Amino acid sequence: MSALTIRRWTVGTIAIFVSVVVFLVPFAFILITAAKTAPEASQLAFTWPAEWQLWNNIGAVIADRNGILVRAFINSLVLTVASVAVMVIFAAMVGYVLQRKRSRWNPIINFFVLAGLIVPPAVVPTIWVLQGLGIFKTLGGLILIEATFGLSFCILLFQAFVATIPRELDEAAVLDGAGPIRLFFRIVLPLLKPVIVTVIVVQSVAVFNDFANPLYFLPGDANATVQLTLYAYASSATSAGALNLLFADILLITIPPLIMYIFFNRQIVAGMTSGAIKG
Amino acid sequence: MTDLRQTNAARPSTKTTSRPRPSRTRRQRRSIYPSWFYIPAAALYIVLFAVPTFASLYFSLTRWTLFDVTFIGFDNFVQFFSDPQLLRSFMNTVVFAVVTSVAKVVLGFALAVLLTSELIGRGYLRAVTFFPVLVSTIGVGLTFKALLDPFDGIVNGALAVFGIQGPGWLTDPNLALLSVAVVDVWKGLGIATLVYIAGIVAIPQDYFEAARVDGASSWNVFRNITFPLSWPATGTVIILSVIGGLRSFDLIWAMTKGGPGFSSDVIASVIYKQYQAGFYGLSTAGNVVLFIVVTAVMIPISRLINKRSLDV
Q1: Which of B52, B233, B235, B27 is CA-nearest to residue A126?
Q2: What is the CATH number of the domain that holds A93?
Q3: I need a labelling partner for B179 at 20 to 30 A (CA). Which of A99, A173, B156, B300 fits?
């Protein structure tokens, strides 16, 4: 038993040491660089800041270019909330009916759901469609895009979860006089709460961190999202020698996912591992 | 449609009864799951995903600019596979996907075995390996660009302590793509580990107990129980990382923009570059090539995985 305890401690200590070097040092680097003065930050050294400038730097980043970062945070927030809301409701409706109703269309629908997961979206033709609809370069257009690209993943999660809700419940509700809409929104949707939380958390992080779709479908400063401003800031801050501000920006943008992780650790894990068991 | 016909033939009288009345007939049971629930999602999917995907098949055969569209047959694809830079992006895409997937499978599995064993600081280790998954890819890319700086970066600084002259990780054309791949593994390893942990935890404890009773060594337990029974998890990890690796764009764009030169370009970055340059037809052809690559890789992989999991 003591041999096991020794192994537990030695292996654990080595693992903790390696994890500190590999995983914590990069995050510590972000924090200390964000706290330095511009000349000190440009040395890229892993040293404690001579002067602790974190709040000044964060203030400077927020004030930069008439507060574009604040606007970007608002845009990203609207984008995330709206697209995830659309995803949840639309995908829950599909997942529910797809699981409950046996029809010969099911294999075809399942095929398209999987295709949506695998096929990379065609960029320029999508812009062409958005232009045709008059929603290219609008936040609304990007909300619909993000919602569409996230649908397949959500449908699969909902479909799997609805299978665990007994059918008898639906029948009982119908016997009590509920119509299909009441049945879904008042009875089934509340029961889907665990999977809804998972979907919300996983997709919010995905949409908030998305770079490629805003880059293609929402170019321009007027509606910039946080990832776009960070990317644009990278070139201007580097040329201006203001790496401390760049890393203060990275720090700010890392905070929302960090908060999500602290509060919803379990749901994130559930969402990411769904399907791991059955393959 | 057949369902409706059958029910009507069986019970012609229900045809006219009002819907919400509680009744246990087959027709009533079916109608509580309305097909129109598909419509909102289907509308989005068709307009914003299916139509562009099918349109891309046509537009990839055209010279397409801001002003007009001219049909030119397969010229874009010929150009894609004869231009050395574009061809390189094709090879890079495959290399990037293979390297990152293999690394995620091997390291993710090893880490999961470690993190399911008796260990001090297990909760901390699980949290810290997973957190990079949630951080903005652009943020990670920019951070590692600074860490991998050939002169001042701390990676080469640490190597210098051991007397090693570190290379220009992102400035050497032979290394740039692999350096980005390593960062991609750093960022994505958490998902692979998590999936493997879920797979290992789901293995019934009886197997481990039986092995212990039989006096199996820990290597034998690993070789004959843990490894074969986590095959479904391996399948999930491979599928996730191959799809992600083939489509990867954000990290490469944040770290190298496909450079130096074109040495770390992948199909996804070529699509963006050609789009920026106004060659919409060529860009769309890149999309079609990517689509074909992803499908061509995914079909045999998912076949193999399904076959293996049936055998086990």
Answers
A1: B52
A2: 1.10.3720.10
A3: B300
Q: Encode pLDDT of B54-78 as tens digits.
A: 999 988 888 887 778 888 888 888 8
Nearest CA distance, B95 vs chain A (angstrom): 18
Provide the shortest C-alpha distance from residue A205 to chain B (in Å).
Answer: 7
Confidence of residue B17 (pLDDT cuts 50, 70, 90): very low
> In this structure, what is the dihedral angle of CA atoms B98, B103, B104, B109, given to the nearest 10 degrees?
130
Give the per-residue pLDDT at B33: 86
Pick the residue from chain A with its C-alpha nearest to B200. Answer: A277
Domain parsing of chain B, residue ranges: 1-33, 76-311
Q: Which of A166, A13, A44 is nearest to B150 (CA)?
A: A44
ipTM: 0.87
Note whether B290 contacts A120, CB cutoff 8 Å: yes
For A94, the domain range is 55-273
A28 occurs within a structural domain: no
Residue A20 counted as domain residue: no
Residue A16 located in a structural domain: no
DSSP chain B: -HHHHHHHHH-GGGGGS-TTS---SHHHHHHTS-GGGGHHHHHHHIIIIIHHHHHHHHHTTEEE-SS-EEE-TTHHHHHHHHSHHHHHHHHHHHHHHHHHHHHHHHHHHHHHHHHHSS-TTHHHHHHHHHGGGGS-HHHHHHHHHHHT-TTT-HHHHHHHHTT-----TTTSTTTHHHHHHHHHHHHHHHHHHHHHHHHHHTS-HHHHHHHHHTT--HHHHIIIIIHHHTHHHHHHHHHHHHHHHHH--HHHHHHTTT-STTTT--HHHHHHHHHHTT-HHHHHHHHHHHHHHHHHHHHHHHHHHHHHHHH-
